[in-house]
Amino acid sequence: MAANSSVPLADCQTYIFFFTALYVVYILLVPLFIFVLYIGFQRWRKRGSATTTSHTDVFTFHMVTLELIGVVGYTIYCYGIYSNQTFLTKVGMIVFSLVSPGQALFHMLTCVERYLAVVHPVIYLRLRRGGGVRIRNISIGGVWCICFVSTTLDDILIAFIIIGFGYLVFSLIVVCFCSISVLFVLIRPGPGEGGGKREGVDQSKQRAFYTIMAIMATLLLRFLSNLVSTSLYMSSVLGDCGEKVMLWSLFWFTVPSSLVLPLLFLQRAGKLPGCKH
């Protein structure tokens, strides 16, 4: 979220501290993002193009790519701060503003995919083939378009806030619907799920439910942080530096959103300690 200021960036020392600490955290997360892409590339090379990659995994790969682009933006922004070059901070802000809408929307698409797998398994199996891949690719293209369009709103703060809340609330509503639907299926399994395979089926559904709940928790955290930051900004109780300190301190609440899909992917791949897929 951008905030124009007449105060030189270098004069806001507390704000610089909060941003630098956040930047260091994301630099430390870069190996995680690269590791996820590396595993995905290894799988693709071993299986070949004949095997369809899981839709959830594809969403994760795009998500970590988006995060890496965001780190590039943070780097440009950081250099702009310490060299006191406003133009570079502006460029960096435009680059990392791609991440915010992409996070929410890729999370939402992941939950929809898990919802279909549990609640509508026949449709899900059908969509794993050619038609589903086309829909997935169109959805991914739409997310990237929204991300790029959002960068043009960086200077129009009110539009940025309204649209930002719009896609976040929409994603939350969809994710909540998915979680309730999956929970209902867990509580009341359909006919034909009894017998020896019941336990395995339920475990698969439980994993889907836990995935959706983890994503919903990160989105709720982001929503609450956005709500607080927007309320404080609109109340005009903070000065220029105070706004920056508040905004960048609340950006810490987006870190779980950056972690949830990569960690869930590594869990499915059996790469986390104590996790077997």
TrEMBL record:
- Topology relative to the membrane, per the entry? Multi-pass membrane protein
Record's protein name = G-protein coupled receptors family 1 profile domain-containing protein
Transmembrane spans: 15-39, 59-82, 94-112, 133-151, 157-187, 208-225, 245-266
Look up keyword Membrane and say if it applies: yes
Q: One cellular component GO annotation, for this chain's record? A: membrane
Q: Where does the protein end up? A: Membrane
Q: Give the species.
A: Pagothenia borchgrevinki (Bald rockcod)
**Source species, domain of life:** Eukaryota
Which key words are in the record?
A: G-protein coupled receptor, Glycoprotein, Membrane, Receptor, Transducer, Transmembrane, Transmembrane helix
As one GO molecular function, the record gives:
G protein-coupled receptor activity
